[in-house]
Design brief:
With 409 residues, the chain is of the alpha+beta class. The chain is built from 18 helices and five strands. It folds into three domains: 125 residues, no CATH class; 79 residues; 117 residues, no CATH class. β4 and β5 form a beta hairpin. The longest helix is centred in the middle third of the chain and has 25 residues. It starts with a helix and ends with a helix.
Amino acid sequence: MSDYLIGCSKRIVKSWALLIAFGILFSLATPRPVCSQCFLGRVDAFSEQIQSSDLVVLAEFVCAVKPIDPKSAGTSTLVVRRVLKGPLDFVYADQIVQLDYAATFLTGESVFLLGQTKGTGFEWWTMLPFSNCRQGYLDRIKEHESSPEKRLRYFLPYLESTDFLADLDAENEFTVANYTDLIDLTPEFPRMKLRQWIRNPHTSPRRLGVYGVMLGMCGQPVDAKLLHEMIFDHLNHENFVLGLDGLLAGYLLVHGERGLAEIDSKILQDRSGSFSRTFAVMQAIRFLKDCHIDRIPMPRLRDSMRLLLDRQDFADLVVVDLARMQDWEIQDRLTRQYGKNLFTEPASKRAIIRFLMACSQQTLDVQSPPPEAVASAGRAVKNLEFLRRQDPEMVRNTERFFMEQKLLE
């Protein structure tokens, strides 16, 4: 890959990260997915598809007619064998169903049909292959829908299953799962199998991150050595990026502040290190912060984030993170650096202005705020006024943009 393409790729990733960071700075905390990079190759979990469907039936595939007219997609004919979800006045057993495309299933093969009600009728929107895992899930759908923990407990034994569909469904479930939904399930995690899967060179990057977090949750001190090897023995391999944030998060869960100190020295303080590896560390720290995990104290996490204020390609991103971590002690430092050194670009200037805006609003809707918070907010107002005199257009445009965003919420 040429230097130009590498630079373009880096800017795209950074732009995405900055948009996400700006979008959540003033938002309320929300449950965090175990896999922060599940937008890559994201597949809706089986349970998500079921929950978003009004109609779910088990059907028998009869035949398909390939298209003759190039404007047609052909047809498929099926027979409903069992209604698993939905009103019986729309669909019933032995009903003939015809779809407007030629599917590739075999005659007599069982499939799941998913559909949506539409006015006084309905329409089928997808067809999924049958598996015993999926049938078992649907047989207990009411129980699963009432509790994410029960749903995840059901799919846990199917991770790395020899049944491809069951394995895929389990992967999708755990990839999009929230950390809080996994906590009570931790004692049931297959620790030794997780170690094997993490070591397996054929494990997909998407799963590697999830398995790293799961091992961190159920792991023992000896597991820190394995995670250390997986992280630091591959630091110079550019392809070893996806899933790295999950391995780092698991390492921090097991090894705590000592692990973070090593990450600081080997990754965050390495100014020549790649953007992707450093960004993975940011994701891991965000994970611990957003999930309110007290394995590492918040002041210590802030110290690590602050190291990136000296990195050209991270200065604007980390300012947003430090605002979310309410690290108001650095506001004077940021005000002094505005428009200088690493903070000359419009994005970094906006990040500092937003930081001061958030700091100035920290006592809003708070009854009897502590004196230090009142003093910090007051100082932020003065710092904003200082920047307003120095760069009035940038401050005005930044404030106007985020006021408009609030009106749209």
